[in-house]
Amino acid sequence: MIARRTASHAIAGALCVLALACVRNNDALIQELEASSGARPTLDAILETPLDPAPFLSGPNELEFSILHADLPFVEGAINGQPLPLLLDTGSSAVSLTGPGARHVGLYLPARPEVRIVTPGNESPHRLGAYTSMTIGTFELGAGAAAVPRRESHTRHGGPRIGNRYAIVGSTILSHFRVTFDFAKRRVRLSRHHQTPRPGMLLASVRVGTQTYAMLVDSGAHRLTLEPWAALELGLIDESTRIRFEKREGATGSGRRKSLRLDRVDVAGREFRRVRATVLNTFGEARQEGRRVAGLLGLAGLGKLVWTLDYATRELEVRD
Question: Does 198 reside within a domain?
Fold first, then answer.
Protein backbone atom coordinates (compact mmCIF):
# COMPACT_ATOMS: atom_id res chain seq x y z
CA MET A 1 0.00 0.00 0.00
CA ILE A 2 1.36 3.41 -0.82
CA ALA A 3 -0.23 5.19 2.09
CA ARG A 4 -0.25 8.91 1.59
CA ARG A 5 -1.77 11.61 3.76
CA THR A 6 -3.19 14.22 1.40
CA ALA A 7 -1.45 17.04 3.29
CA SER A 8 2.04 15.57 3.29
CA HIS A 9 2.14 13.69 -0.01
CA ALA A 10 4.78 11.38 1.52
CA ILE A 11 5.22 7.84 0.19
CA ALA A 12 4.34 5.22 2.74
CA GLY A 13 3.64 1.95 0.90
CA ALA A 14 1.57 0.17 -1.73
CA LEU A 15 -1.43 -2.14 -1.67
CA CYS A 16 -0.70 -4.41 -4.57
CA VAL A 17 -4.11 -5.69 -5.60
CA LEU A 18 -3.89 -5.63 -9.38
CA ALA A 19 -7.15 -7.45 -10.20
CA LEU A 20 -10.22 -5.29 -9.76
CA ALA A 21 -13.80 -6.51 -9.58
CA CYS A 22 -17.01 -5.31 -7.95
CA VAL A 23 -16.59 -2.87 -5.06
CA ARG A 24 -17.87 -3.44 -1.55
CA ASN A 25 -18.77 -0.43 0.59
CA ASN A 26 -17.53 -0.74 4.18
CA ASP A 27 -19.51 2.17 5.65
CA ALA A 28 -21.83 -0.01 7.76
CA LEU A 29 -18.92 -2.07 9.07
CA ILE A 30 -16.94 1.07 9.93
CA GLN A 31 -19.90 2.52 11.82
CA GLU A 32 -20.18 -0.74 13.75
CA LEU A 33 -16.51 -0.59 14.76
CA GLU A 34 -16.79 3.09 15.68
CA ALA A 35 -19.71 2.33 17.99
CA SER A 36 -17.66 -0.27 19.88
CA SER A 37 -14.48 1.87 20.12
CA GLY A 38 -14.46 3.77 23.40
CA ALA A 39 -11.59 6.17 24.13
CA ARG A 40 -8.27 4.36 24.64
CA PRO A 41 -5.41 6.86 25.15
CA THR A 42 -2.60 4.42 24.35
CA LEU A 43 -4.11 3.41 21.03
CA ASP A 44 -5.13 6.99 20.23
CA ALA A 45 -1.46 7.98 20.59
CA ILE A 46 -0.46 5.29 18.08
CA LEU A 47 -2.76 6.85 15.48
CA GLU A 48 -0.77 10.10 15.65
CA THR A 49 2.35 8.31 14.32
CA PRO A 50 0.86 5.44 12.29
CA LEU A 51 4.04 4.57 10.36
CA ASP A 52 6.21 3.97 13.42
CA PRO A 53 7.34 0.32 13.70
CA ALA A 54 5.35 -1.86 16.06
CA PRO A 55 7.52 -2.88 19.04
CA PHE A 56 9.04 -6.37 18.86
CA LEU A 57 8.23 -8.19 22.10
CA SER A 58 9.53 -11.75 21.87
CA GLY A 59 10.30 -14.68 19.60
CA PRO A 60 13.15 -16.83 18.26
CA ASN A 61 16.00 -15.51 16.15
CA GLU A 62 14.63 -17.18 13.03
CA LEU A 63 11.32 -18.70 11.97
CA GLU A 64 10.11 -20.36 8.77
CA PHE A 65 6.52 -20.52 7.53
CA SER A 66 4.53 -22.28 4.84
CA ILE A 67 2.95 -20.06 2.20
CA LEU A 68 -0.81 -20.61 2.33
CA HIS A 69 -1.57 -19.18 -1.12
CA ALA A 70 -0.68 -20.55 -4.57
CA ASP A 71 1.94 -17.85 -5.16
CA LEU A 72 1.47 -14.87 -2.79
CA PRO A 73 3.17 -15.03 0.64
CA PHE A 74 0.21 -15.43 2.98
CA VAL A 75 1.20 -16.99 6.33
CA GLU A 76 -0.62 -17.87 9.52
CA GLY A 77 -0.82 -15.15 12.15
CA ALA A 78 -3.10 -13.31 14.55
CA ILE A 79 -4.15 -9.76 15.42
CA ASN A 80 -5.69 -8.92 18.80
CA GLY A 81 -5.37 -12.62 19.59
CA GLN A 82 -7.67 -13.60 16.71
CA PRO A 83 -6.27 -15.95 14.03
CA LEU A 84 -5.94 -14.15 10.70
CA PRO A 85 -3.99 -14.88 7.50
CA LEU A 86 -1.26 -12.28 6.94
CA LEU A 87 0.05 -11.29 3.51
CA LEU A 88 3.73 -10.37 3.93
CA ASP A 89 3.82 -7.56 1.41
CA THR A 90 7.11 -5.71 0.96
CA GLY A 91 5.34 -3.23 -1.30
CA SER A 92 3.33 -1.97 1.66
CA SER A 93 4.28 0.18 4.60
CA ALA A 94 1.74 0.06 7.43
CA VAL A 95 -0.62 -2.79 8.22
CA SER A 96 -3.99 -2.85 6.47
CA LEU A 97 -7.02 -5.06 6.96
CA THR A 98 -9.94 -5.93 4.75
CA GLY A 99 -13.30 -4.89 6.18
CA PRO A 100 -14.21 -8.46 7.23
CA GLY A 101 -10.73 -8.81 8.74
CA ALA A 102 -11.16 -5.64 10.80
CA ARG A 103 -14.50 -6.87 12.13
CA HIS A 104 -13.06 -10.30 12.95
CA VAL A 105 -10.25 -8.90 15.13
CA GLY A 106 -12.35 -6.10 16.68
CA LEU A 107 -10.08 -3.33 15.39
CA TYR A 108 -10.07 -0.13 17.46
CA LEU A 109 -11.51 2.40 15.00
CA PRO A 110 -12.46 5.74 16.58
CA ALA A 111 -14.09 8.49 14.54
CA ARG A 112 -11.24 10.28 12.74
CA PRO A 113 -10.66 12.03 9.41
CA GLU A 114 -10.02 9.80 6.43
CA VAL A 115 -6.58 9.36 4.91
CA ARG A 116 -5.93 8.97 1.19
CA ILE A 117 -4.01 5.86 0.23
CA VAL A 118 -2.46 5.30 -3.17
CA THR A 119 -3.08 1.85 -4.62
CA PRO A 120 -1.98 0.83 -8.12
CA GLY A 121 -4.00 3.03 -10.45
CA ASN A 122 -6.01 5.09 -7.97
CA GLU A 123 -6.24 6.89 -4.65
CA SER A 124 -8.92 5.78 -2.22
CA PRO A 125 -10.17 6.85 1.22
CA HIS A 126 -9.18 4.73 4.22
CA ARG A 127 -9.77 4.95 7.95
CA LEU A 128 -6.98 4.46 10.47
CA GLY A 129 -7.46 2.19 13.45
CA ALA A 130 -5.17 0.43 15.90
CA TYR A 131 -4.61 -3.10 17.19
CA THR A 132 -3.21 -4.15 20.57
CA SER A 133 -1.04 -7.07 19.44
CA MET A 134 0.15 -9.06 16.43
CA THR A 135 1.73 -12.48 16.15
CA ILE A 136 3.47 -14.01 13.15
CA GLY A 137 4.03 -17.63 14.08
CA THR A 138 5.72 -17.29 17.49
CA PHE A 139 7.00 -13.77 16.84
CA GLU A 140 5.08 -11.41 19.13
CA LEU A 141 4.75 -7.71 18.36
CA GLY A 142 3.02 -4.96 20.26
CA ALA A 143 0.34 -2.44 19.33
CA GLY A 144 0.32 -0.66 15.98
CA ALA A 145 -1.80 1.18 13.42
CA ALA A 146 -3.85 -0.40 10.63
CA ALA A 147 -5.80 1.03 7.71
CA VAL A 148 -9.26 -0.10 6.57
CA PRO A 149 -10.60 0.93 3.13
CA ARG A 150 -13.92 2.72 2.90
CA ARG A 151 -14.53 0.82 -0.31
CA GLU A 152 -12.62 -2.27 -1.28
CA SER A 153 -12.50 -4.38 -4.39
CA HIS A 154 -14.33 -7.63 -3.78
CA THR A 155 -11.79 -9.95 -5.37
CA ARG A 156 -10.60 -13.44 -4.62
CA HIS A 157 -7.17 -11.98 -3.92
CA GLY A 158 -6.62 -14.55 -1.20
CA GLY A 159 -8.18 -17.46 -3.10
CA PRO A 160 -10.61 -20.03 -1.70
CA ARG A 161 -8.37 -20.94 1.25
CA ILE A 162 -7.85 -17.33 2.38
CA GLY A 163 -11.15 -15.70 1.40
CA ASN A 164 -11.67 -11.97 1.99
CA ARG A 165 -10.73 -11.89 5.69
CA TYR A 166 -7.02 -11.16 6.04
CA ALA A 167 -4.43 -8.48 6.80
CA ILE A 168 -1.58 -7.06 4.72
CA VAL A 169 1.67 -6.61 6.66
CA GLY A 170 4.22 -4.20 5.23
CA SER A 171 7.63 -2.76 5.97
CA THR A 172 6.83 -1.24 9.38
CA ILE A 173 6.70 -4.85 10.59
CA LEU A 174 8.98 -6.60 8.08
CA SER A 175 11.80 -4.14 8.81
CA HIS A 176 12.41 -6.09 12.04
CA PHE A 177 13.66 -9.00 9.90
CA ARG A 178 15.78 -10.27 7.04
CA VAL A 179 13.04 -11.74 4.85
CA THR A 180 13.45 -14.67 2.43
CA PHE A 181 10.68 -15.71 0.03
CA ASP A 182 11.19 -19.17 -1.48
CA PHE A 183 8.46 -19.32 -4.11
CA ALA A 184 9.57 -22.75 -5.36
CA LYS A 185 9.17 -24.45 -1.98
CA ARG A 186 6.38 -22.06 -0.90
CA ARG A 187 8.21 -21.04 2.23
CA VAL A 188 9.00 -17.74 3.95
CA ARG A 189 11.84 -17.28 6.44
CA LEU A 190 12.10 -14.35 8.85
CA SER A 191 15.45 -13.75 10.57
CA ARG A 192 15.54 -11.12 13.32
CA HIS A 193 17.62 -7.97 13.08
CA HIS A 194 19.36 -7.15 16.36
CA GLN A 195 19.38 -3.42 15.70
CA THR A 196 16.94 -0.54 15.34
CA PRO A 197 14.54 -1.26 12.44
CA ARG A 198 14.73 0.85 9.29
CA PRO A 199 11.10 0.81 8.18
CA GLY A 200 11.48 2.49 4.79
CA MET A 201 10.44 0.33 1.87
CA LEU A 202 13.15 -1.35 -0.18
CA LEU A 203 14.10 -0.01 -3.62
CA ALA A 204 16.02 -2.05 -6.19
CA SER A 205 17.95 -0.89 -9.23
CA VAL A 206 16.21 -2.55 -12.18
CA ARG A 207 17.60 -2.40 -15.71
CA VAL A 208 14.90 -2.47 -18.38
CA GLY A 209 16.45 -2.63 -21.83
CA THR A 210 19.09 0.10 -21.79
CA GLN A 211 17.67 2.13 -18.88
CA THR A 212 18.13 1.63 -15.12
CA TYR A 213 15.33 2.61 -12.74
CA ALA A 214 14.54 2.53 -9.02
CA MET A 215 11.60 0.20 -8.39
CA LEU A 216 9.80 -0.74 -5.22
CA VAL A 217 10.42 -4.41 -4.33
CA ASP A 218 6.94 -5.91 -4.02
CA SER A 219 6.30 -9.45 -2.79
CA GLY A 220 2.54 -8.87 -3.03
CA ALA A 221 2.40 -8.21 -6.80
CA HIS A 222 2.06 -10.72 -9.63
CA ARG A 223 3.95 -8.67 -12.19
CA LEU A 224 6.23 -5.73 -12.83
CA THR A 225 4.54 -2.35 -13.29
CA LEU A 226 5.95 0.72 -15.03
CA GLU A 227 4.99 4.32 -14.52
CA PRO A 228 3.76 5.95 -17.77
CA TRP A 229 6.75 8.33 -17.80
CA ALA A 230 9.13 5.35 -17.71
CA ALA A 231 7.19 3.49 -20.41
CA LEU A 232 7.39 6.60 -22.58
CA GLU A 233 11.14 6.88 -21.99
CA LEU A 234 11.53 3.23 -23.06
CA GLY A 235 9.51 3.80 -26.23
CA LEU A 236 6.73 1.44 -25.11
CA ILE A 237 4.00 4.09 -25.35
CA ASP A 238 3.70 7.48 -27.04
CA GLU A 239 3.14 10.89 -25.45
CA SER A 240 -0.62 10.91 -26.08
CA THR A 241 -0.94 7.55 -24.31
CA ARG A 242 1.08 8.82 -21.36
CA ILE A 243 -1.29 11.78 -21.02
CA ARG A 244 -4.34 9.49 -21.11
CA PHE A 245 -2.81 7.30 -18.41
CA GLU A 246 -2.41 10.24 -16.03
CA LYS A 247 -5.15 12.35 -14.50
CA ARG A 248 -2.83 15.33 -14.64
CA GLU A 249 0.89 15.93 -14.56
CA GLY A 250 2.48 14.18 -11.57
CA ALA A 251 -0.84 12.80 -10.30
CA THR A 252 -1.98 9.24 -9.65
CA GLY A 253 -5.21 7.45 -10.18
CA SER A 254 -6.38 7.36 -13.82
CA GLY A 255 -7.03 3.63 -13.47
CA ARG A 256 -5.85 3.00 -17.03
CA ARG A 257 -3.50 0.07 -17.60
CA LYS A 258 -1.73 -1.51 -20.53
CA SER A 259 -0.29 -5.02 -20.52
CA LEU A 260 2.92 -5.83 -22.36
CA ARG A 261 6.07 -7.95 -22.21
CA LEU A 262 9.56 -6.59 -21.64
CA ASP A 263 12.28 -8.27 -23.71
CA ARG A 264 14.89 -8.08 -20.96
CA VAL A 265 14.98 -7.08 -17.29
CA ASP A 266 18.08 -7.27 -15.06
CA VAL A 267 17.83 -7.15 -11.27
CA ALA A 268 20.18 -8.25 -8.47
CA GLY A 269 22.64 -9.73 -10.97
CA ARG A 270 19.98 -11.86 -12.65
CA GLU A 271 18.65 -11.61 -16.21
CA PHE A 272 14.95 -12.17 -16.97
CA ARG A 273 13.48 -12.50 -20.46
CA ARG A 274 9.98 -11.77 -21.79
CA VAL A 275 8.76 -10.39 -18.47
CA ARG A 276 5.05 -9.69 -18.05
CA ALA A 277 4.48 -6.05 -17.18
CA THR A 278 1.76 -3.44 -16.85
CA VAL A 279 1.86 0.29 -17.53
CA LEU A 280 0.01 1.85 -14.60
CA ASN A 281 0.15 5.28 -12.99
CA THR A 282 0.78 4.58 -9.30
CA PHE A 283 3.51 6.90 -8.03
CA GLY A 284 3.36 9.89 -10.35
CA GLU A 285 6.44 11.98 -9.60
CA ALA A 286 6.87 10.61 -6.07
CA ARG A 287 10.38 9.98 -4.78
CA GLN A 288 11.86 7.81 -2.08
CA GLU A 289 15.43 8.00 -0.82
CA GLY A 290 15.86 10.84 -3.32
CA ARG A 291 15.05 8.60 -6.30
CA ARG A 292 12.04 8.82 -8.58
CA VAL A 293 10.13 5.54 -8.32
CA ALA A 294 9.54 3.98 -11.76
CA GLY A 295 7.15 1.22 -10.69
CA LEU A 296 6.77 -2.03 -8.78
CA LEU A 297 9.06 -5.05 -9.03
CA GLY A 298 6.51 -7.83 -8.52
CA LEU A 299 8.54 -10.79 -7.23
CA ALA A 300 5.80 -13.40 -7.69
CA GLY A 301 5.75 -12.76 -11.44
CA LEU A 302 9.46 -13.44 -11.99
CA GLY A 303 9.43 -17.21 -11.52
CA LYS A 304 9.80 -19.76 -8.73
CA LEU A 305 12.94 -18.24 -7.25
CA VAL A 306 14.36 -17.40 -3.82
CA TRP A 307 14.42 -13.69 -2.94
CA THR A 308 16.07 -12.27 0.17
CA LEU A 309 15.43 -8.71 1.37
CA ASP A 310 17.76 -7.29 3.99
CA TYR A 311 16.21 -4.16 5.47
CA ALA A 312 19.33 -3.41 7.53
CA THR A 313 21.70 -3.25 4.53
CA ARG A 314 18.98 -2.26 2.00
CA GLU A 315 20.04 -5.12 -0.28
CA LEU A 316 18.13 -7.58 -2.49
CA GLU A 317 19.43 -11.03 -3.42
CA VAL A 318 18.03 -13.65 -5.83
CA ARG A 319 18.94 -17.31 -6.43
CA ASP A 320 17.44 -20.53 -7.76
Answer: no
